Each structure stands twice: as C-alpha cells, then as structure tokens.
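User: Please run a holo structure prediction.
Assistant: Happy to. Please share the sequence and the ligand.
User: Here you go; the ligand is 1-deoxynojirimycin.
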Amino acid sequence: MAAAAFAVAVASPARADGDAAPKPLRVVSPGQVLAVELDFTWFRQPIYRVSRFGEPVIGNSWLGFTLKDGGRLDRDMVVVGEARRSVDQTWEQPWGERRFVRDHYNELRVRLAERSGAKRQLVVVFRVFDDGVGFRYEFPDQPALKDVIIDDELTEFSVAAPSTAWWIPAGQPTDLELPIHQTPLGEVSVAHTPLTLRTRNGLHIALHEAALVDYAGMRLRRTDEQHLVADLAPSSEGWRVRRSAPFVTPWRTIQIADSAPALYRSSDLILNLNEPNRLGDVSWVKPGKFIGVWWEMHLDHWTWGTGPRHGATTANAKRYIDFAAKNGFRGVLVEGWNVGWDGDWQANGDSFDLTRATPDFDLKAVAGYARSKGVTLIGHHETVGAVSHYEDQLAAALDLYRSVGVDSVKTGYVADANQIERRDAAGVVHHEWHDGQFMARHHLKVVTEAARRHITIDSHEPIKDTGLRRTYPNWLSREGARGMEWNAWGHPVNDPDHEAELVFTRMLAGPFDFTPGIFVLDPTQPGCRVKSTLAKQLALYVVLYSPLQMAADRIENYEANPRPFQFIKDVPTDWAETVVVNGEIGDYVTIARKDRRSDNWYLGAITDEEGRLLSVPLGFLTPGRHYRAQIYRDGDAAHWKTAPLEIAIEEKEVTSADTLTLRLAAGGGVAIRFVSLPTHASQR
Ligand code: NOJ
C-alpha cells in the first residue's frame, strides 16, 4: 500500500555521471517517535518523507515552487548548508486552553542552492515534535531573487496509508461554512485545512499550517490516489503570492497521533510554530461571555435594517445590558447599529458607514449605560466583503469605538467565494478570495490597528486560524466553519454529529465563535431546527473552545429556564488546563477543563445521533480534593428529535478516584461543574 506513496525515484549513490549524490538528511523527534528525511530525486529535486516508529506516514513528497518569470525553484539543487538545534521550553499564554505550553522539538535547517544558472537559494526548516512536524521555506536575501512572484507552491503530502478524510471543500460559495465531508481520502477534491485523516491502521493525522502571514492560505488538492498538493489561494492578478526576499512562508504542519484525543492535544504545535506575543502587556485583553441583539435577527423576528422591527435600538440594547449586568455577562453585542443595512444589505457593502449610527441608536448613550452597569458594549463591523471601503474607514471606526469605551469588535466578511472587493490605486475594483494574500494582510492590519487602541477582534467569515493569537493575543476568536446560525437559516441545518466533527477538524486550528446556548430548539421557520438536546447546548461551552463565548438565545428563553441557564452563568472561558478524556471523530467527545481563576473543573460530553454510555474516570481532578459535581444531563426520555428539552440537574460529591458513567441521549450531552470544596466541607 505504501508503494504508490514512495513511487518518486530518489537519488542513489551510484549515479552514472559520477556525481556525488546528495545523501538524505534525517532529523528525529525528541522521543524518537517521528523522523523526517530530506532527500533528492534523480534530477536533484528536494523531497521529504515522514515516518512514525519507522513506519511511513508521509511518503516521498515534493518541495519547491514555480515562480513567475523564474521557472521552477526545485531543480538541480545541492545542499550548501545545514544546521541543527534542539529546543525544550515552556511558555505561558495570556489566555487559552491551558496556561503553560511546552515547545519541544529538534530542528533541521537546510540551505539548498541551484547548481547552475543563477544559483538561487532556498532554505527549508523542519521542526520535529513527538506528535507532529512543521516545516517552512525561507527565501534568503540574494541578488538573483528579489521580487518573488509565486505561481505555485509545489509542496506535497503523500499520505502513506489508505485513510478516511474529514474535509471542507474549498473554493465554493459559503466557503469554510459547508458541512464537513467524510469520505475516503481518494474522494477529496480541493480541501481547506485543517484536513483530518484517520488511516486504516488508526493513526490520526491533520494537515494544516501555522503563522499565515502575508502569504496565501494553503488549500490541498488531491492529484492522485493519496497524494495531496498545496493549492495556494489565488490572487486576482493570477499569481498566488508576491513578496520581496528575504521572507519566510507559513509553516506546513502535519499532526500525527494515535487517537482522536491525542490529535486534539497535538495542536499545541500550531501555537509553538508562531512567534511569541508582539503586543507586550496584554492585560487589557479580556476573555469572557456575551449576549447580543443577534439571534432575533437570524430568526427574522428583528431586522438589521431600520424600520419597525429594527433590533439595534437604544431601548433593546439597554434591555440586553440590564440582563447582562444581572447575570454576570461581560459584553453585549449589538448588530445593525450603523448606517448601511437598509435594503439588500448583502449587495451594499460600499454604503456601510461604520462611524454613523442609525437615528434610533444612540451609540454614546448605550455605551455609557453599559459602562455604568459594569458591562461593555461589543462593537460590530460588518464589511460585506467591501474590504477596501472598510480599510478607508478603519481608523476612524476603531477610534469611534475606543472613544466610547468599546474594547471588543466583531468583524464580518459576508461575501461569496472570490468576491472580496479590493480597490487598486486607480480606483478599479478587483475580486479576491477570503483566504488569499490580500486578506491575510488585511486581517493583520485590522488586528494590529485594533491592538493600538486596546481593542480585541472576533472575525466572522474570517481567514482560517493558524495560531496567530500567540503573536497577537487581541485576536480572540473567529468563526471559520459552520456555526449555530445555520440552524436558524436551514439549507441545511447542522446534523447531530457536526460538533463532534468540529472538535477534531476546525477546532484543531483554534477558537471558534460558534455561538452555542440555544434553549428553544425549533426556531419558527420551516426546516429550521437545532438538532441537539438542551444538555448538549450546555456541554458545548466546554467542548467548543473560545475565550469569547456567546449565550446566543433570546433573553426571554433564558429567563424562562433559570436552572439550566445557571450553567452558562457559571462556566468560565479561560482555562488553566484542558484534558480530552475520550472521543472519536464525528461520534462523541468528552473534554474536561480547569478554570484559570479557581480550583473548579468543568466537563462537557457530546454525542452524535447515537445515544451512548461513556465511562469517565475523574483522574484529572486534584487528588485528595473533594468536589461537588453539579450535573446537567439528558433526562431519561431525552432525544434531540422527540424530547430535546428533557434535562435532569443533580448534584453529587466526587473525588479524582471516582468514575462517572455518563448517559448521553441521541443528539445529547452532559455538562458538569466540579466545585472544589474546602477541606473541612469535604470531610463531612
Ligand atoms: C454572518 C455572521 O456569522 C453573523 O454572526 C452575523 O450576524 C451576520 N453575518 C451579519 O453580520
């Protein structure tokens, strides 16, 4: 089976022309788990391969580029330099799924040069961890290669074993938000990353990238059997990337683990491959929960545009602020507050004015009212994909928010694939992809401009997450997959397995503003439905990580259900530790997380359309401590379709020596808060 993967002929010591053949260079992970070899084909094209405990995982796979006006930069190359180092360090996150992250790898840096012609150089750097590999290219400063125009990146991933793939098709309308496909790898066409694979032997692999800075997003195109090749998002100019040397590409990442939970854990590698925090003191960055003038618009009760059903009125905003203050929410999002939404807003990006409120919304008064109640108004910048128009008003729009005390902004890029508007210096409009180089630059412009004003960003219809939150910790969250809102729109709604798929696909990349917490599960429109039980909605606050979590439902629905709502009030959004207790892609998953600001733990378990019994040892709790487990579970008759609201809420005292048997209904879940008891109380 690996034969096809190793079909590229490699150099051998006995070349007929008598040339000394380049020898493969090898680097192994610190625990001798993974090994990477850099080798060469007969025509001296660099290739790499990856093995795990000696077994091939990624077979011979090409490296290199096709350059505009420069032909291929991958032929007739020799090694002109080699450097190695080992790193083992632990760094602290300002916020995240765990407080401390270990960064432990062996690195091989190889300088390649063409043997003839301009003798252009290219550096390849491999970092090999026990649970994954990152590699990137560096274009060094060199006279023969200044203006680098990349027509194609030739990087391949030749997957050795037949595999099942979980993937999102790329280059389609509603890009990134299509339902996740599960097919044999041999049926993948062009996929977004992370692309998750499970091999026939049970190995779990995820292909993605880290530190996507000033470069085009990498999609993966299947070329043959199990071969995937980088397919960089195009620019409107035809090329994929244009840069001046010296520069580095994003890291290409291959996470490799023997189980779904271990695959999730291996995502630390994405953060490790990003640069450390560039913003300095980020104590102004505040994770937290929010509610919003939002779901009512998606239900079509209210409108973004002005008129009798306008949602963003001063009165509605104040009502939401009162509710947030009463129930301990940090923020209130208000969408539809600015001029531009009237009429067919999705066609009117150029008329969006992000410095002017509608007549029925007094921005200053609402923000001041929020402040007086200890709540912050969360700003909203919908761009409708008119990105140059947005950039023209970006500074003023952020200044306005800053002036009224708004410290968090949700951005939006509602536009079809390849419909982002870029206006050039001559005023001509070009259409770009959400994941092209132009948008990679744009998002960092927004994030850095926001950081200068101590504002955090939550991007919807974003570029994919590649771990840049490490470098820019004010990039708190984003969408970038199919969220809750699809359940209000239909065509189609999310299936019960969606979230258990998300955990091992989209969530490998980073936080997702999914917007859970819907209590009325059958919105009014025909065909719309949240295919979940109420207990599963609670569990999602633990399972789907985001430092910003929305309680997405109407406040009336929370007021009517105070007991389950208590869990949403209690659950934090910033964690000291995260443990994926069990899980299979698309079937079920249990995640336990320790609060960053107390000794309490929280657990969420969710399942697909199958009911399940899950045995959960509580070994993650601190030994010797007693905890009061507040359990929100599916009621005995619960079923996402027939009895979604059946919930049982109970308490019991537990320790780390206990094992809980969790019963999850079809489409259901369990949410648990483990309250750490004072020593004297636990002895009772
Ligand atoms: C799509 C976003 O995902 C959603 O949250 C927002 O309400 C609408 N766009 C309008 O901006």
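The first helix runs from residue 260 to 265.
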